[in-house]
Structures are given as C-alpha cells and as structure tokens.
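Build the 3D complex.
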Amino acid sequence: MIRIYRQLLVAQIQAAAQYRIQAVLWMLFSIIRPVIFLAAWTAVSNAQGGSIGSYTTSDFAAYYIALTIVGHLTTAWNSFEFEFEVRQGRLSPKLLRPLHPLHYAVVENLIWKATTFLPLLVVCALVAATFNVQWHGQWWHLALFVPSIVLAAALAFMIAWVIATATFWLQRINTVNTLFQRVGFMFAGQIAPLALVPTWMQVVSYSLPFAYFLAVPAEILRGGVTLEVGLLYLVGQAVWLGLMIIAYRFAWRAGLREYSAVGA
Amino acid sequence: MDAPVVDVRALRKVYRVTERETGLAATFRSIVKRRYREVLAVDGITFRIDPGEVVGFLGPNGAGKTTTLKMLSGLLHPTGGEATVLGHVPWRREGDFLRGMTLLMGNRSQLVWDIPAADSFLVLKEIYAVPTAQYKRTLDELTELLELQPLLHKPVRGLSLGERMKVEFAAGLLHSPGVAFLDEPTLGLDISMQGRIRRFVAEYNQRSGATILLTSHYMDDVVALCRRVIVIHHGVLLYDGALADLAERMAPYKRITVTLRGEVGDLAAFGDVVSSTDNTATIHVPRTQAGERTARLVRELGDQLADISVEDPPIEEVIDKVFTSERPLAEATA
Amino acid sequence: MARRTPRIQRGGRLVLRYLRMFRAFASTEFQFEMEYRGNFYLSILEMFLVIGTSIAAVLVMFGHTTTINGWTLPQMIVLLGVYYLIQGGVNLVFSPSFERLMEHVRAGTLDFHLLKPVNAQFLVSTRHLRVVRAADLLLGLVVVIVGLFQVGEQVGVGAALLFALSLVFGVMLVYSLLLGLVTLSFWFVRVENLLAIFWAFTEAGRFPVDVYPLWLRVSLSTIVPIGIAVTAPANAIAGRMDWIAVALLGAGTVLAVGIASALWRRGLKSYTGASA
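Done.
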C-alpha cells in the first residue's frame, strides 16, 4: 500500500505542478469567508466593550485564524469531483483497477494541502498582524492539535465520500452538496465560536459530526480548551470518524450495485 | 461594368507571435521582457470579384486563405493595403456592411448547442433586424433547399456533423447577405453530404445572385462550384483566373495508363513515363498529341495491352504544381 | 429569393431594437431552462436554503449585541436582502454571459459575435441568461421588505427612489469589475481563477462595509466594489444617503463602466490586430 501511495504521489505531484497558481488562488478563495467573519465579530466585540462571553476581541481573532487554518487543512472537494467523474464516464476504468478510487482522491487532496500550506501560513500571519492576534495556548494544545487535525481531515473526507455516493442514485448532487455546505455553515462553527451560539444549535453541532471537523480542532489550536475537554473532543472525533467509515462502506456497496444495475 | 463587390489591393497581414520558452526562469523573464516573432501571413495580394461570382480560394494549410477571409469580413485589421467589400471598408465594421455579408467557418459553430436551431434563428432574426415577412420567406426557402424540416426543432447538440453544417448554413444566410465568405464549408463531412452542400451553394448563388468566396482544400468543392480560382501560397497570390485555363497551362498533358499482360518494357518512345510497376505504367503525353500517341500504343503493344485509359491530370496535381512553382503566374490571356 | 439588404424595422429606434434582441435572448434561455424543470425548482430551493442560513447567521450575531457599527438587526436584514438582490441581478445576466465569453475566446468562436451588426460589448454582456436567478432577485426583495417592516418606519418616496437608483448603480459597478476581469482573457487565457477570487471577495458584501479595517473598506469600495454596491442601497433606503451621495455614487459608476468599456475596446483591438 505504501508503495502504491508513493507512486500515486509522484504522479499527482507532477500534475499538480501545472496548476500551482490555480491551487494558490483557490486557497485564497477559501480563506476569505473566515476573514470576513473575523472582521465582523471584531466589530461586534469592540462595540460590546472588548469581549462577548468568554471571548475577548483577541480571542475572536485567534479563533478565526485557527478556523482558517483548520478549514484549509480539512477541505474535501471529492464529492464534486466524484460527480464530475461519473458524468464523464471516468469512474468505470477506475473500478476495473484493483485500487479503490478513494485513494486517488486522498493523494490529490494531500498534495493540494501540502502545496498551498506555506502560502496559507503567510496570509494568516498577515491577517493576524492586521488584527493584533495573540496566542494564549500551551504546548500541549499543539500536541493535541496534531491528532485532532488528522482526525478532522479524515472525517471531512469521509463525509464528502458518503455524500459523493449519492451520485449513484441522483446523478446530479449539486443540491445535496449545497444542502450540506449550508448546514455546515450553520453548525460547524463558521458563524461564531460554538460557545456563543444558541444552546439548541450547540446540541445539534456536537451530536452530529459538524463540530468535529471544524470548530473542535480550531478551538484546540487556539488554546481555548482544557486538557480534559481536549481529550474528550479527540474521542468525539474518533467516534464520528468510525461512524462515517461504516456509513461509507454501506453506501459504497449499495451504490456500486445501483451503478452496475444501470449499466455502468 | 458593375462596381466590384470585393476589391482588394496590396493587402498585407503580419502577425506578432510571442516567443515563449519553457521553464520557470523563462516565464519570469517573459514578464519583464517579451520576445516577439513576426509571421507574414498575407504578403500584398490584389484581386477583384464581381457581383454574382463564385470564386475559389485555394492554398495549402497556412497559406493565408483564412487570414484573408478574416480581413475581408472585418475580423482582422490588415497591416497594410486596402480592401472594400460591398463598398465598405470591412474592419470599420459598419452596420450596413455587417448586415450585407456572412462568414461561415467549417469547423466552428455559431449556434448555441443546447437549444433548437429554430430558436437560434429567431435570435438571429432580431440581431439582424430582419422583417418578419422576409424572414419567413427566407427561412422557408432555406428549409426547402437544405431539407431542414426534421432538424429545426431538435437541440443542435443532437444533430450529426452534416446536419449541423446544414443548419449553420441556414443560420448564416437568414439575413440574405449579398456576399458570403465560406471557410472550408465541407470540412469533415462525408462524401454525400459534401455533394449536397455543393449543390446547395450553387443553387443559392443562382437564385439569389449572392457573391460567394469559398476556401477549401477539397478540390472537388472548387471544381464543382468555381469557374475562377485564386491560388495563394505563403501569403502570395500565385494565380488568379479560370480553373480550366490553369489546368491547361500548368498541366498541358494527358495521362495515359496502360496495363500489360507481360512485363513493362521501355515505353519512353511514347512519352514521359512517370511511374511504372511490373505490368502497369503511367505516361504523360502532350495534350495535342494524346490521340495519336494512344493509337500508337494500341498498335505497337498489340495483344500485350490488357487495358488502357486516357485522362486529364487530376486537378490536385495541377494545383500542386502551382504551389511548388511559388512564383505568381502571369495573367492568362482571356 | 431576391438579394437585397434587409430593411431595418422602420418603427423601431435603436433602443427598441436592442430591447427586442434582449427579449429574444431571455426567451430562448428561459425555454431551455424549462426543459429541466427539476433543476429549476431545485435551484430556487437552494436559494431559500442559502438565504435562510445567512439570516440565521445574522440572528446568531445579534443574539449578543443590539448593533453592529450602528446597524440594527432589521437594518442588517435589509443589507442582507440587498446583497442577494445585487448578486441575483449580476448572476441573472452578466455572469452567464461572461462565462460563455471566456469559452468563446478560448475556442475562437468570439469571431461570430464580431460579425454581427450589433455592439459587441452588448452581445457578450447580455447574450446568455440564467433566468432562475430572477427568483433570487425576488427573494432578495422579499428579505428587504421584511427587514423594512421590522424597522417600522415609513419609507419615503425619496428614499425608495434613491434605493432603486443606488441598486442599479451597485449592479453596474459589479458589472464593470466583471467586464474588466473577463477582458483580461484576451491577454491571459486562464482568467477563471481571478474570477473565483472575485466571487470570494463578494462574500464581503454580506456585512456593511464599515465593519472592515480601512484597507479592506477601501478595496471593497474601489477595486472590488461589492462593499459599496451593497452598503449604499441599504443606506439609501434607511434614509442615510442624500441625493448628493447617490449622485456621487452614480458618477463613480459611470466612471467605472467607462474604464471597463475602454479596456474592453482595447482588448478587442488587440484581438483583431488593430494598431494600438
């Protein structure tokens, strides 16, 4: 498996080199929303005397910078790509090979993140400077962040795959994607740090996987959790990742049956 | 004599092409300083076309045909020289000029693929401001000539290449232009569709009197439609005159192909042996002596002769000779 | 079939002619969209979803404060409505047309537009529509009205007029930016990425422009004028803009459209090989 991944990586890196500029531009595209909300919340917080709840203006800034980084590292666009491939008829040749199509998407995903990570950090540093961000975390926050972000990225990826399998039945999943994006917008921590949203929304966020691929790692990164809560979060992430993998297994098998029934 | 519909004088077009090397360093360098190469596409051509003519524009790929057409339809500004079409300077893109002409490109479609052709036609009607009565008349006639009835209400996407070409023709002629520039109109079509399109163009020219300038590298298009040809190569006009005269001048010979029962011997006495295999040979003989030489061959080869055929040289051969001469031919006397 | 130059409709003046053309464009696009009725309704549903969640976001924010930079909740709702109005207006005509334009430049089929006896800029800007976006326009308007209702004050005729005017200016401002970006495809083939960034920046329009730090505020009023395009009408209907301000906005819009159009003409000149 490792050898396969290594070969895939080599092949994909070459392809990605052609699209360097596009990759960076797309990254810029994805950070604008958190920055906008950062500006908005800064205004709100300053109007309220410098803090809202347990978040000072500087905390908001730190949260949204963390959200930007996490958002970037957990981006998963494979649901769009999958629908496109099925429509183009490119899925069948992949299914004939002994390698699960999922692995191509993983490699593509990782390469983009690797290519654009440095520019991302540069932009984040700039934004942080503009908004006077200070980091109040401990070293173990960073230690916790490592497994957290890996779990989060894997979780986001698996969710995207489960959504992607809807293609087998619906062919066009644009609405499904929009639905998930907007629900995620509401419940994953983009609108506000989860501690500040109405209780019923917090319940939804934490009992569904939404909190675990965005808000949770962001809070850990920003240093806003105690050690116990941080560890609990990791467990939550792992549980949801497990659930998603199971869901994916079912959906994929059923989907393939549907796909071949229609005459792939 | 009527004023010419197309009047071209010393028309010249030079393209500036950026030279791009590969590699990151070169890309950076090119941001600061661009290097250009000049490509001479059309090098001072002159000709006139009278109303109602159907003229063929011949030349190999890259000869400058399409560039010339683009200049005459107003899409490109020339680097030098002058031209008027229908009394207008094309690249000024005046309304009356644009309404009076059409350019059809064989490998490119102007129709929107997702909607039926009929809908695109309605849009074109508004764009050219064609009065409704005239539009109906023109559409009916084009539908009849091109057998469009089953094609009009299907999305263009679903039509075959030949069907699409027919519909594109109709789209280009809806506004009854006085001049039609056809750039490779039969490109990629099968033989029968090519024939249909040719018949249509001839019929359209007859009925409407529209002047037609057509480029093609299918000789059959030119032979079928054009009494007059203009030959271009490397941007230079090599010949402008009747196609028949061209054949006579460039290839004043006939081609005799003999098939023998036994081995081919030395036939040099009969004419210019251009090719031979074990039992066949192709001989070029001067046109005026074709009959006499044929008779001699029959007499002297006797029952060695299995088959003999006498033909005009294929027109491709004629044209090729013009291309390879690469010097403009002096005007043939009328 | 007589060969003669067609007579221009005597009855129509130039404007009428262009309006008829536009009607032909809209009608064919609408017929096409109606073939895929499912998608049509789904798009409307999606818009409901998008607007609904955006309003939810605003509500969450206002759970912690009563104003943001002097904007009350109802006023923010109005702003949000204007945001979707402007997006709807731009996405109704200009976005689909410009998307096709970039394809044309790449495929070499732009020539067909240039062969027509119609202003090329008009053709490439309005040739294609996504009629379903008219629903976005309507939804945006509904949100604006709901917000106004919550504000409770009477909206004077003057304010309403200024609102309508600044809305038109806002759409034309965004148009000029789009035109400028798309014209770049004459020189740089892959402009889609720039457009993607532009769309990302338009997100900033969901908040009043004064929320942002100075440098962002300035960029959102000049380079990517979405900020001013959305905030101005929202201010206008709240009675916070006078005629002079709207006139200035109008002047700026005319200037922006003028610059973008000049760039377009320059691009065409380069494309057709006319000497500079």
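The CA atoms of residues 24 and 116 of chain A lie 6 Å apart.
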